[in-house]
Design goal:
The chain is α+β, with helices and mostly antiparallel strands and about 750 residues long. It contains 23 helices and 26 strands. The strands form 9 sheets. Strands 12, 16, 17, 18, 19 and 20 form a 6-stranded mixed sheet that branches. A hairpin with a 4-residue loop joins strand 4 (about 115) and strand 5. The longest helix is centred in the middle third of the chain and has 48 residues, at about 400-445.
């Protein structure tokens, strides 16, 4: 037959069978057993040797990272098989580019013959191979078509609110009557509820994790494995206790998942296309969410509050025993930075809250160049917020007239704006309808050749530009109207919520986080009559800012009379009655005391070393981390370590810096003996350390001034010669020379 080259070669054959999940199990002709039977019979008829059978059951043809396929590739590379046979080309794969790579590059380079029986593909048949690329393209098109259909089916079911996961998320079980519907799992739902309660109370992930771990609760993966889910046991094989250790990621996933508020969330990670296996994660706000698909473990309001807390990273920050209930809420009114809690008193108070004040973090870091202190006492802030919450709660319960007045004041501007926006929206929609009619008329004129192609393009471009501008503006107007409607509803929600806090006696993080978005604190202002006032703005959930509060800051202590520093004599205002030094001198005194303490400690340790070493001539007590060694002894030990390693290259950087003159000479003599057959780089300021080196580099300000031996540099490098002369003069210097000079 023309175009076919036959061989009498006996092949070592590997038959490859593959079945995708999408192929189904009902199609007998495509089953693994059928493929094996067809391929085995073919090999026997040809009289070849069946070396190995490779099977990938349940793997897609678009992905070549299949276990058995990769094993086959390794066997080809090792020379174990030289012929690959499949039932048809699609069993090898459905990716056009990868199939072509194996058929046209990999198999020929490794002298491997490939045969696809049903498609008549044989790499020895050149004419049949000409059509093979088209078969690969058709196989890929089929796979792409199947992929689109499956994705469409999944999306349709997802949009109907059907849960499509293999296993139910932690806290839920699949409904026995409908596996696409979730029911609350009473065994562990209380754990999820507790996690959300802890988050609502202002606890961070670290504290929640510590609390849950202390209760010895099975982590989600361990619980899933206990319920029969597969693939999780590998996490606990080596450590049984690991079943009860929760990670912050697990907690974060629970707190972030809309599923616990009764909403189905999906499409969190989507591949760019069928061929790409990378599925980058989307941000939570980009997830697709279907509301009210099942019963939630927490309410939507609680879930939304937790998201806000996590976004602003509100967490409790302790200053001693002080519970910072305003963490993440209190801000500077001028720069927007958070206010941090810090100790404000030098004298102890019965209540820790009276020893704490808030100051601007921007000011604390950079001083008054960036902002001012905006200091407010913790007690003043606590009382002001508590009083304002009680005022609104009493009003919501007892004063309907005041409630209506607030509603009117908050919505009056919005209602007026909403009316204007509604008129504009109607006008924009009307113009869009007119443009649609104009487009239809314009297209008809073009078809009937009433206008030229040029005029049609010009007019249609003009209309299209106007359409885009109107649609953009219409989107803005619609969003503004929605915000207005939401604010009206928010006022009712806020009043309904705050009624629950009537008669509140104490504030905690749960109350603050439930009611308040943020608190802005202004700088203190002193009026003409000498009184000091401070403004606070509270932005509540649902309604925002209602009205500012004006407080009189508490004066916690009276300034002490000025003193004179006992060191420098400068007058200063002390922070406490026992202060003796101005701030600058206080730091110096403290530093000197610290240095003296360290010196005494080292002297004491050194004495202990001498006493212990004296008891045994061969024993030198060095102490923990060389505590009993002097600087010179440490340096000699380091040098010994370097030469004991017996490396070909040795770098000595100021190796005799701590040595006296006698020891320096001995160390240099040791260098000369030990440096044989080694390359030694010496960095030094003392000339005696390097004068016997084979080559000396003289550097100044990073630039090379000369190089060579000691003798050569004395002749060729003036700088080196001057250094040697100066060193010799210094070595001969005596007190008599000093007296003679004077």
């Amino acid at each position: 037959m023309a175009g076919i080259r036959t061989e009498n070669k006996i092949y070592e054959v590997g038959i490859y069978c593959r079945l995708s999940k999408d192929d189904g199990t009902d199609n007998e002709s495509a089953s693994i057993a059928t493929q094996k039977s067809i391929l085995t019979d073919y090999v026997k008829k040809q009289g070849w040797h069946l070396a190995k059978t490779y099977v990938d059951d349940g793997y897609s043809g678009t992905n070549f990272q299949r276990p058995s396929f990769q094993n086959m590739i390794k066997d080809i590379e090792n020379g174990q098989i030289n012929c690959v046979i499949t039932k048809d080309l699609s069993r090898l794969g459905r990716n056009y580019l990868d199939c072509g790579l194996y058929l046209e590059v990999f198999f020929p380079e490794h002298n491997v013959r490939y045969i696809a029986i049903n498609d008549g593909v044989d790499t020895l048949n050149k004419s049949a191979m000409d059509i093979t690329p088209f078969r690969n393209i058709l196989n890929e098109m089929y796979s792409a078509d199947v992929s689109v259909k499956i994705k469409s089916a999944y999306r349709a079911r997802f949009q109907q609110g059907k849960f499509m996961g293999t296993y139910a998320p932690y806290g839920y079980v699949k409904d026995p009557a409908d596996h696409n519907h979730l029911l609350i799992d009473d065994k562990v739902a209380h754990v999820v509820r507790e996690i959300f309660d802890l988050a609502l109370a202002g606890n961070g992930l670290g504290k929640i994790r510590k609390h849950i771990n202390s209760q010895h609760v099975l982590r989600p993966a361990a619980y899933a494995a206990e319920q029969g889910a597969t693939g999780y046991e590998r996490y606990f094989e080596d450590n049984e206790e690991n079943r009860y250790i929760w990670s912050e990621n697990s907690l974060r996933n629970i707190l972030r998942s809309p599923i616990y508020a009764g909403n189905l969330a999906g499409y969190k990670r989507i591949a760019a296309n069928m061929k790409s296996k990378k599925r980058p994660s989307k941000l939570p706000e980009e997830w697709e969410v279907i509301p009210n698909t099942h019963e939630g473990i927490v309410t939507q309001e609680e879930f939304d509050t937790v998201q806000q807390l996590m976004t602003s990273r509100r967490r409790e920050k302790n200053k001693g025993d002080f519970e910072n209930i305003f963490a993440g809420v209190i801000k500077c009114a001028d720069c927007g930075y958070a206010l941090r809690a810090m100790s404000a008193n030098r004298r102890k108070r019965p209540d820790i809250i009276d020893c704490v004040q808030y100051t601007c973090n921007n000011y604390g870091r950079y001083g008054n160049v960036m902002c001012t202190a905006h200091a407010i006492e913790a007690r003043d802030l606590f009382n002001a917020v508590l009083d304002d919450i009680n005022r609104f709660a009493d009003m919501a319960v007892n004063d309907e007239r005041a409630v209506r007045a607030i509603e009117k004041r908050l919505t009056e501007t919005d209602q007026s704006k909403a009316k204007t926006m509604e008129k504009e929206r109607k006008k924009l929609n009307k113009r869009l309808a007119e443009l649609d009619r104009l487009f239809s008329s314009l297209y008809e004129d073009k078809v009937m050749e009433r206008i030229t192609e040029r005029n049609f393009e010009m007019m249609s471009g003009k209309y299209q530009k106007e359409q885009l501008e109107i649609e953009a503006r219409l989107k803005e107007v619609t969003e503004t109207l929605n915000e207005s409607y939401e604010k009206s509803q928010g006022i009712r929600d806020f009043l309904s919520l705050i009624r629950n806090y009537q008669g509140l006696k104490e504030l905690d993080a749960t109350v603050v986080n439930a009611l308040i978005d943020k608190i802005l604190v202004s700088e203190r202002e002193k009026s003409a009559d000498g009184t000091v006032k401070q403004e606070i703005k509270i932005y509540y959930k649902f309604i925002g800012f209602v009205g500012e509060l004006h407080i009189t800051p508490t004066k916690r202590w009276t300034a002490l009379p000025a003193k004179h520093c006992m060191v420098c004599g400068v007058e200063y205002v002390p922070g406490s009655a026992i202060s003796k030094y101005c701030p600058i001198c206080a730091k110096k005194v403290q530093r000197e005391k610290s240095n003296e303490s360290r010196r005494r400690s080292r002297t004491r340790d050194r004495q202990v070393c001498i006493e212990l070493s004296a008891k045994n001539d061969r024993l030198t007590v060095i102490g923990e981390k060389d505590a009993y060694l002097s600087g010179g002894e440490r340096q000699r030990v380091a040098i010994a370590r370097v030469f004991l390693r017996n490396t070909p290259i040795v770098v000595l950087d100021e190796a005799t810096a701590y040595a006296d003159a006698g020891n320096e000479a001995k160390i240099q003599a040791a260098f000369a003996r030990l440096a044989k057959d080694k390359t030694v780089l010496i960095i030094a300021h003392r000339l005696k350390t390097v004068e016997k080196a084979d080559k000396i580099l003289v550097m100044k300000n990073g630039a090379l001034q000369g190089q060579g031996s000691h003798a050569a540099l004395l002749k060729s490098c003036p700088m080196y010669r001057d250094m040697v002369d100066a060193n010799e003069r210094r070595s001969r210097w005596t007190i008599k020379d000093r007296e003679a000079a004077l």
